[in-house]
Amino acid sequence: PRLLLLNGPNLNLLGTREPGIYGSETLADIEALARRTAQAEGLELRAVQSNSEGALVDAVQAAREDCAGVVVNAGAYTHTSVALRDALAAVALPFVEVHVSNVHAREEFRHHSYLAPLASAVIVGAGVQGYAFAVQRLATLLTAGRD
Ligand code: DQA
Questions:
Q1: What is the DSSP track for the chain?
Q2: Which CATH class is domain 2-144?
Q3: Which residues in the chain show pLDDT less than 70?
């Protein structure tokens, strides 16, 4: 089985972007961590990052063909994108939503997520490690059933 790791806008800048909020690790570090974690669980992983909402929708639609679950940090589109929510609903794959920062400790506009009501789990404020937790959670759901 394969997971899709989907990162949205500005996450390509991790490492240099507001390091006080997001830390010093890069997107490449995150993708390597997620892939290592997936492999330890016997899963493959496809990593996609885009700054474009439509490209993220396309990646979710494509995942229907060959992925069993999705780890998604949609960045700011979390708070704005009905289209991405609809794509995740359409493919009906289990997904875990991740945010590096604790969005609930930040501005009000980051408190609402269009994706969260559909998510299997939401992990916020655990830093880059949240991606590893998300992969592990999907591995549990996929191999041991939905407990
Ligand atoms: C983020 C939180 C979002 O509010 C923000 O727009 C991001 C990153 C996070 O990982 O903490 O781009 O998703």
A1: -EEEEEE-TTGGGTTTS-HHHH-S--HHHHHHHHHHHHHHTT-EEEEEE-S-HHHHHHHHHHHHHH-SEEEEE-GGGGGT-HHHHHHHHHHT--EEEEESS-GGGS-GGGS--SSGGG-SEEEESSTTHHHHHHHHHHHHHHHH---
A2: alpha beta
A3: 145-147
